[in-house]
Amino acid sequence: MGAAVAGLAGRVALVTGGSRGIGAAVALRLARDGADVAITYLDAGEKAKGVVAEIAGAGRRGLAVAADSGDATAIVAAVERTVTELGRLDILVNNAGVFPYGPIDEVTVEELDRTLAVHVRGVYLATQAAVRHMGRGGRVISIGSCFAERVPYPGVSLYAMTKSALVGMTRGLARDLGPRGITATVVHPGSTDTDMNPADGAGANHERTFIALGAYASTADIAATVSHLAGEGGRYVTGTAISVDGGFAA
User: Fold this and answer.
1) Which among 11, 34, 76, 232 is least surrounded, fewest beta carbons within 10 Å?
2) Active-site residue 159, yes or no?
3) Of residues 101, 159, 216, 236, which has the active-site annotation?
4) Which strands form 183-189's sheet, in the order they lie side by side?
């Protein structure tokens, strides 16, 4: 195990949707940088166990909690269980998400409600529960999307709307939590190589035409920025969004 990043040693993080993709990469990076890490998962129980095993392999405590971020009771319970089992909570990473796609006239009320529940209500409730346990140096980091900054093609209006909501919430949180020494930030990933959006998948070459660097991010690229914000490097960064999108929004 490498040396812990300043500010992460001995701290406890909760990463929602941490069983795969960006969430798993963030959870593992935080653990390797010194934090004990809890993750939530919806239906990828075996993958969640694997992430916890890797956290343990990094010499840190890990915890996997089955919780749907769209379920108000479940997401608050996940925060409380993290505090009960790991003893405290210093870092919340709101990562869990869904990806609705399609023309606006085909979006159902059920899809609208589900997306709002996961991306907006669930994030708000998790944050509300988490900050009750945070002291000075606490961090609230929400994973947004490059579509909150630029939408170059149709079909993502619902997704873009809900991810954009995180920016307004984060600005408000900066004012609410600043006097308590807690920061709030958003990280906007661009196209990132995951099982949901593989760099060799259908449409990936078209996606690259919008990216200034011409390549997908790795999940490690996103996790590096999250870890920086979670540590001492993020102590004076709040109320803002940072894009890790390869120039998608340039």
Assistant:
1) 232
2) yes
3) 159
4) 62-66, 36-41, 12-15, 91-94, 139-143, 183-189, 240-244
